Amino acid sequence: MPGESDIAIRARGLTKCFGSLRAVDDVNLTVTRRQVYGFLGPNGSGKSTSIRMLCGLLTPTAGEIEVLGLRIPEQAEELRRHIGYMTQQFSLFADLTLRENLEFLAAVQDLPRREAEQRVDELLHEYHFEGRADQLAGTMSGGQKQRLALAGSVIHKPELLFLDEPTSAVDPESRRDFWEKLFELADAGTTILVSSHYMDEAERCHRLAILDRGRLVADGSPAELTGALAGRTLEVRAEQPRQAKRVLVQVPGVLSAAQIGNSLRVLCEESGDCRARIEQAFADAGVSATVTPIAPSLEDVFVAATNRPADQLATEAP
Amino acid sequence: MNWRRLWAVVIKELRQLRRDHITLAMIVGIPIMQLILFGYAINLNLRHLPTAIADQSLTSGSRQLVMDMLATGVIEPVASAQSPQQLMEMLRRGEISVGVVIPQDFERRLATGEEVVQVLVDGSDTVVQSAAVQLAQMPLTYTPAEPRASSVPLPQARISVVSFYNPQRVSAINIVPGLIGIILTMTMVMFTSVAIVRERERGNMELLIATPVSRAELMLGKVLPYGIIGLIQTSLILLLGMLLFQVPIRGSVLDVYWSAMLLILANLSLGLLISTRAQSQFQAMQMTFFVFLPSILLSGFMFPFDGMPAPAQWLAEVLPLTHFLRLIRGIMLRGADFSDLWPEWLALVVFILVMMTLAIVRFRKTLD
């Protein structure tokens, strides 16, 4: 049994270069046990590369990794018994049935024959696959495939679970179900590292790290991250929001102004009284608008951390 | 090496194979089709080959010989000629496939037992060639001036065959043992290389390498099912070869299977090595043919090994098929012992060890 300390993952100066591209750049990371830890970032921000390095599938260009008390990549082979890994792309065998897929995984994870049988039945039941055990995995819907993949990755009851964008191709209801399963696993003591580009999923994590262009730009609990922006987020209601936006982007200290229906969501720089300046600018321009403070969201955190509009998360998604 | 994990990979592979109807059909279809195509093409009793006859003798004896030849139905006169030179020219232009020369001193040669007739053959076509050989074996029933015991085939081969463009005659019996090698080379290399690359393409490999399954378990688990398939194919070809073409197995059957097993392993390990290099199934197929074509051309299957220039021979020595052909022809046709042919199987064993080691070393359980 690897180290029983409270730290599941510790990475220092984690870097990966592909040719001249720094896919992951000097990332420091600490994940404590029994947490759901989120990686939030647009595609190409280094989420998958980081996860692959942490479970020993990619060799880091630089940096130190310790997972469950094991040095990675040196002890990756030993680590594989204790982790579950769910790939971004569906990676079970499309031409095997559900049961055959799970049986195969149970065998390569060294479950004794009888225990394996029991565990496969248990998982088929728990993940609502009764009566479909003999269906080919390739014929299932996206949501079902993800559920099966999750069942497959926990077949050996790993202490630590890596999930690489598990819900990127799944409808909202399946996503909710999927997250229910994740919390059940976390309650049972599993540490989970999950990457996503959905804000609502990030909000569910105990802690999260925001990645942008290979760099870790912010990390903490959702409350800490949003709390750090207190007083910097404003809502502007205006008759003509587009006109108001043109005024807003001229105001010094305004980082972003995103239109949401008839209102604008404004994120300001840390220093100075932004609100007064905005109201002044509206008055000067003769635009009628009301400015009120609102609670910061994770979208604001992302914008503040990356200096990029939040919709890039969605538009850069596949 | 964990047997349960290895077995799990084998079972998974077999289950996937069972659902892959096209591959299954190819496993059985390729040997049957190739055997029948190659076998019958070579065994075909050709009729009506376009022929020109230059009868320079013009005696009643020569005329009777010509009539006998025509009566076989193998040749059909399409042009007339006076000299062998004319016949050669017609052969070159492809107007005729067979030329028959009956020399002026036909009667004298017949009396003295010299070769009486020359048959010129377009040897670039093995089928024509073998037909002409049949023609040459036609017994001469004509007996000159003082009759001996009539109708007795004369002791010496009285008709000489000159084969242009392909001095070595290939026969069906020679083809069938070689065909085992050809089919195993084609299917085994292709199946293994594609089987692994397919998993990489579909993303299964990323899942597999994140589990405790070891490199050797993965590789052997992939190779074993195809090894069994290779033995099934071997049996199929042997059986059909014996039934359809009366191919003899003069040596021991066990030795035949030993040889086949060595070639199967050699090809499977080569397939594994290809799979560590190829990025897509298409690349794997191309690399397979990169090996397959020289195997067919240089191994001695199509053209005699001894006739090839030295560099081609060196290259051929590296190909497993070359050594297998020597083994299998030795065992099946000459009745040689496996132990007599030790340089050949030793070469195969070395090939297997080198390829397998390279494949396992090159295969990494990482995505780098």
UniProtKB/TrEMBL annotation, chain A:
Residues 9-238 form the ABC transporter domain. It holds the Pfam family ABC_tran. Keywords: ATP-binding, Nodulation, Nucleotide-binding, Transport. GO terms for molecular function: ATP binding; ATP hydrolysis activity. InterPro entries: AAA+_ATPase, ABC_transporter-like_ATP-bd, ABC_transporter-like_CS, ABC_transporter_ATP-binding, P-loop_NTPase. Belongs to the ABC transporter superfamily. This is ABC-2 type transport system ATP-binding protein.
Automatic annotation (TrEMBL), chain B:
GO terms for cellular component: ATP-binding cassette (ABC) transporter complex. Its main location: membrane. The keyword Membrane applies. One of its GO terms (molecular function) is ABC-type transporter activity. The keyword Glycosyltransferase does not apply. It is found in: Cell inner membrane; Cell membrane. InterPro entries: ABC-2_transporter_component, ABC2_TM, ABC2_TM_bact-type, ABC_2_transport. Residues 138-366 form the ABC transmembrane type-2 domain. It is a multi-pass membrane protein. The chain crosses the membrane at residues 21-42, 175-197, 223-244, 256-275, 287-305, 345-363. Keywords: Cell membrane, Membrane, Transmembrane, Transmembrane helix, Transport. This is Transport permease protein. It comes from Microbulbifer donghaiensis.
